[in-house]
Write a structure and sequence with these properties.
TIM Barrel, globular, alpha/beta, binds N-carbamoyl-L-aspartate, 8-stranded parallel β-sheet, 3-stranded antiparallel β-sheet, binds zinc ion
Length: 365
């Protein structure tokens, strides 16, 4: 069963006529899990076909905690690119309780990483080496503030007593707001925002805060995960929330507001890891990301704002140049494969096999 039958997107068709074709500067993915080994080789071509650059998440096993590890991982990604691909990985450092401010600064000055990722310990996949006390990280955060290095935050509470649907809200109140106050010069990206309240907090701090929005959180709500039975391939963290939040995310993405930009959080897991007694968190959205985002902008009557969200806002926040090439998307029905093979297993593609109303027409590097 495909998602469009599962879930009516609920968008009212825009009154104004929308273009059937759109050419924008090449977009970047500001949040991507490429993994390593066979998985890296299987999923990277999809991200590289869509995006010029990617902020590479460091939650490998073991995590990317040193600049030497980041440099080596970067080389493995470059080596796994399809022939002719110019995809540029932008590396990140996985913060732990023992990360040193000097190491962070050295890796940044040497051009090895552009940002550091804060996972509250245990909050998500491979986050068990994450940070147990954000206050204890103050020397590192002060240094990042001083040198202009970005902090990327997985914003969910880790107290098992907090309801899973409230973990983002709890974190924002108890951890993010105090952090933004303590470090007014620190540039912070709230990754994969899923609630209306998080969006309000980001807007209120947009001089130094921004948020990435995933394709799947613009399409599914929490009911979708249980539609007709339990759907492990729609389970990710933060878990999708109520419909009012999905509508708020769509409004934020299509608003043109510079504090919101693409971050697919494409997070592949093998089918056997998804379809087991305890399913891993993560949706593999990398193969259908732009088709999904542009569909949302079309449905919301906001195609004229798609380039800002996809290709301008993130680069501006990161202080990086906008890409010179372009990509053309067209209103033409297309499909992506239901799954992609990885070794002798496979990864299920978000919206794979579904008829997608928009297709990628051409990439002009
Ligand atoms: C991500 C993963 O699998 O690495 N999973 C997810 O559900 N999004 C980790 C993360 O970004 O939370
Ligand atoms: Zn992620």
């Amino acid at each position: 069963m495909t998602l469009d039958r599962l879930f009516d997107s609920g968008a009212t068709r825009p009154a104004k006529a929308q273009a059937d074709r759109i050419t924008i500067k090449r977009p970047d993915d500001w949040h991507v899990h490429l993994r390593d080994g066979d998985m890296l080789r299987s999923v990277l071509p999809f991200t590289a076909a869509q995006f010029a650059r990617g902020i590479i998440m460091p939650n490998l096993v073991p995590p990317v905690t040193t600049s030497a590890m980041a440099a080596a991982y970067r080389e493995r990604i470059l080596a796994a690119r399809p022939d002719g691909s110019d995809f540029t990985p932008l590396m990140t450092c996985y913060l732990t309780d023992t990360t040193s401010a000097d190491d962070i600064e050295r890796g940044y000055r040497d051009g090895i990483w552009v940002a550091a990722k804060l996972y509250p310990a245990g909050a998500t996949t491979n986050a068990h080496f994450g940070v147990t006390s954000i206050a204890g990280l103050a020397p590192v955060l002060q240094r990042m503030e001083k040198i202009g290095m970005k902090l990327l935050v997985h914003g969910e509470a880790t107290d098992p007593a907090v309801d899973i649907f409230d973990r983002e809200a709890d974190f924002m109140e108890k951890e993010l707001l105090p952090l933004l106050k303590r470090h007014p010069g620190l540039k912070v990206v709230v990754e994969h925002a899923t609630t209306a309240e998080t969006l309000d907090i980001v807007r209120a701090h947009k001089d130094h805060a921004a948020a990435t929005l995933t394709p799947h959180h613009l399409i599914i709500n929490r009911t979708s995960i249980f539609q007709g039975g339990l759907r492990p391939h729609l389970y990710c963290l933060p878990v999708a929330k109520r419909e009012r939040h999905r509508l708020a995310l769509r409004a934020a993405a299509t608003s043109g507001d510079p504090c919101f930009f693409i971050g697919t959080d494409t997070a592949p897991h093998t089918r056997s890891n998804k379809e087991r007694e305890c399913c891993s968190a993560g949706v593999f959205g990398g193969a259908t990301a732009l088709q999904t985002y542009v569909q949302v902008f079309d449905e919301e009557g906001a195609l004229d704002r798609f380039e800002a969200f996809a290709s301008l806002n993130g680069a501006r926040f990161y202080g990086l140049p906008v890409n010179t090439g372009t990509i053309t998307l067209q209103r033409r029905a297309g499909t992506m494969p239901p799954a992609v093979s990885v070794g002798d297993d496979e990864v299920v593609v978000f919206r794979g096999g579904e008829t997608l109303p928009w297709s990628i027409e051409a990439v002009q590097p």
